[in-house]
Structures are given as C-alpha cells and as structure tokens.
Amino acid sequence: QTREHALLARSLGVSQLLVAVNKMDTVDWSQSRYDDIVKKLGLFLKQAGYKDIDLSYIPCSGLGGENLTKAVSEPKLASWYKGSTLVEQIDKFKAVERPMDKPFRLIISDVFKGLGSGFSVVGRVSSGSVQAGDRVLVQPAGDLAVVKAVTMDDSDNTCGFAGDHVTVVLTGMDMAHVNVGSVLCDPQNPIKSAMRIRARIVIFNLELPITRGFTVVFHYQSITEPAIIKRLNCQLNKNTGEVIKNKPKCLVKNSSAVVEIEFERPVCLEMYKDYKDLGRFMLRQGGHTIAAGLVEEVLKTKSKTEENSTE
Asked: Distances in Å between the alpha carbon of 18 and those of 5, 62, 81, 137?
C-alpha cells in the first residue's frame, strides 16, 4: 500500500515528500533499522520519480510523541540522530506557486444547510479568488448564485485565494442542484462539463489488458464516476512520449498511451496545460489504482438540451 500511495502522490503532482519513520521505540531506536528503511524506501521513491533533494526522513514515535514537535529527548535516538523534528521539517517545504491570475475555480467537497438564509459549500480554491458579493456559476447545474460570505478556519474573511480551504455561503439558487464534485467558477470563464475526454495515461499494475470498452472508476478531485475507455488512440514511449504504435488493440501494465474516456454523467474538469491541479486524475478498478492520467482535450461537453433540463 505504501508503494501505491507513493505512485499516487507523484502522479497527482506532489513533488516533495517527508517520510515519518514511526514506531521507532518498538525497535529500541535502532539506527540500523532506520537506515534499512531509508535505503529500501528511498530506492523505490526514486523509481517513482522523486529526487533525493525532495525527500526527507524523520525517525519518531507517534505514541510517545518523540521527535514530533520538540527536540529529541530519548538518549538512544539522540546518540545518532541530530536532524529536525517532524514539524520543523514540514516547515521547510518549499511553498507551492498558486494560480492566482487564472479564473476562479472551487471544487466542492461538502454541502450543508446553515442556520441563516442560503446554504454553505466547502472546498479548496484551485485558482483565482472569491469574495462576498461575487456572482458565481455552479457547474454542471448551470445555475448562478451570489456569494453571501466567505469563512476560513472558523473565522470570518471577506475573501479566499488559490490554495485556501474555505466555506462559502451561497444564495439565489436551489441547494438541491449542488453536489459534492460540483464546481463554483467565474461565469465569464466557466469550467467545462465534459462527457468525453482525450487523455494521456500511465498504466501501473493490472491483471487484464485494457481494451476498447474497458470499464473503470474515474477518480478526480472529490468525485468518483464510472467511465469507459472508448478508444485507444496510440501507445507511447514511457520515457520520451513518442508514439510507438497507433490504434493498439490493447494496453498492458507499465505502458503509456493516449486514450479517449467517456462518462455517464458530465464531469467538471480542465485541460492539464491550462490548470495543472484540475487536469490530473486516477483510474481504478477492483479496488486498485491501475493508471494515472492528464486531460489533453475535452472532446464532448454537456448538450444544451441537458443544460435546459436541469433548470
């Protein structure tokens, strides 16, 4: 499971990792055991695409609280470890650049009715900003709403920026039209409601080859949607990205390809070249992650007829 999580993290754009080597007290703070873990896990993480400079390891004990927030006090650990605490190392992470200049996007992770008028949605601002008084478009419903208030960390704010986790109070629309996975966006630059996409995928381990009609579960942001691989466009060289075979009959493990994916319901997403955070996804089947992908193009969006039927 640790291996799968590392692959998922790298595929979803996590470029820095801190490994908490926990329960060191159960091996009597053995340096040789710590070194063995660092060596074995480090080798795999490099194969997953991580560089040494972006990896750090912290020996600790969650149960005893050793080396989490305070300097090492355990004599056996202090005899060989002179590095940072877990929290100190977290504070050393390089700040991620946020797309402040792009149109507003917020993927909704929760919806609830408050005590006052309107209702609240929770999510992370992926790009742009939002403030009280803004008119926003809720996709894929296609409804307009007015932002009544924005709060963060249980304190009232007037606005939220890219990277912030916020609660937004909305008025002027029916709460029944909003679901987890819906998106608040700029009405002048709305997010796409896709029914079919072309994507570049990297396949991990899978038992059966991927063929046309292969069913998967599409994991994206806070949603999971059933989907079908409708077309195998081409197989790619995993290292260079060059096309090595057009219209392959099947795709096997540890390969890379361009495919077309179709959804049963519209999925709000963006192309990777425009919004990196909103252009990544995972494919799962049978409880296992079988591929990671990047959205290259939206081939089909929700029709006008479908839009009108939701009003």
From this structure: 13, 15, 16, 38
Count of residues in the chain: 311
**Neighbouring residues of 192: CB distance < 8 A, sequence distance ≥ 6:** 268, 269, 270, 298, 301
Contacts of 245 (CB under 8 A, 6+ apart): 234, 235
Residue 225 token pair:
């949607």
Chain position carrying tokens 């994206």: 220
Number of Cβ within a 10 Å radius of residue 22: 15
Q: What is the mean pLDDT of residues 266-278?
A: 91
For helices 31-47 and 2-11, the axis angle rounded to 10 degrees is 40
Q: Which residues contact 63 (CB under 8 A, 6 or more apart)?
A: 23, 25
Q: Can you list the alpha helix ranges (DSSP code H) found in the chain? A: 2-11, 31-47, 75-78, 86-91, 304-309
Rounded Cα distance between 105 and 90, Å, is 27
Give the pTM.
Answer: 0.79
The model's confidence at residue 287, banded by pLDDT at 50, 70 and 90, is: confident
- 292 forms beta bridges with 202, 282
Residue 302 phi, psi dihedral angles, 5° rounding: -60, 135
Task: Give 290's DSSP letter.
Answer: E
Cα 225 from Cα 90, distance rounded (Å): 33
Collapsing DSSP states into helix, strand and coil, what is residue 2? Answer: helix
Instruction: Extract the runs of DSSP E, i.e. beta strands, from 53-187.
Output: 55-59, 105-112, 119-127, 129-131, 135-139, 143-152, 155-157, 159-161, 165-171, 183-185
Q: Tens digits of per-residue pLDDT, 161-193?
A: 999 999 999 999 999 999 999 999 999 999 999
